[in-house]
Write a structure and sequence with these properties.
mainly beta, Chitinase A, domain 3, four-stranded antiparallel β-sheet, 9 strands, elongated
Length: 149
């Protein structure tokens, strides 16, 4: 049986939950998560845990906030005048809104409070500051093709 090594392409079933059990992400065999181990395009802690796993094997990995979506940063909670938003936009607590800045970038924030003149927006990722429990099952391992010299 093949063990996963750095550079292998793997197809995974992946389920991510909060400690409360709330589901954050889930896929199935029709839509496997595919990644190259060691490319750094997935959570490094999960990629590291994949090493030496075999096809059909399942692991549960707990990601601390710092290893997942980062800590919740209080400085990313900001007050914004309501007047900067188009009047046709429905503004209510819990809504996610896009903010375009002059540099051409866009940011997404969640309305966490509001009064007559201002909105309080949390610009952190929705999962910032949260521990994530990830369950991965290896569906297949594809070793990299090595060129003969």
């Amino acid at each position: 049986m093949k063990n996963i090594k750095e550079g292998d392409t793997v197809q995974l079933l992946c389920e991510a939950k909060l400690e409360s059990g709330e589901l954050c992400y889930n896929n199935d065999a029709k839509d496997p998560l595919e990644l190259v181990v060691g490319d750094g395009k997935f959570f490094p802690t999960v990629e590291e845990a994949l090493h030496e796993m075999t096809e059909g094997e399942t692991k549960v990995i707990t990601l601390e906030a710092e290893d997942a979506f980062g800590p919740h940063i209080d400085d990313l909670v900001i007050k914004v005048p309501k007047s900067v938003f188009k009047t046709e936009v429905t503004l209510e607590i819990g809504s996610r809104i896009k903010i375009d800045v002059p540099t051409g970038k866009s940011f997404i924030g969640t309305i966490i409070a509001m009064d007559e003149q201002t909105l309080t927006l949390d610009m952190n990722h929705l999962l910032a500051g949260k521990r994530i429990i990830v369950k991965v099952t290896v569906i297949s391992i594809i070793e990299p093709i090595t060129k003969e010299e």
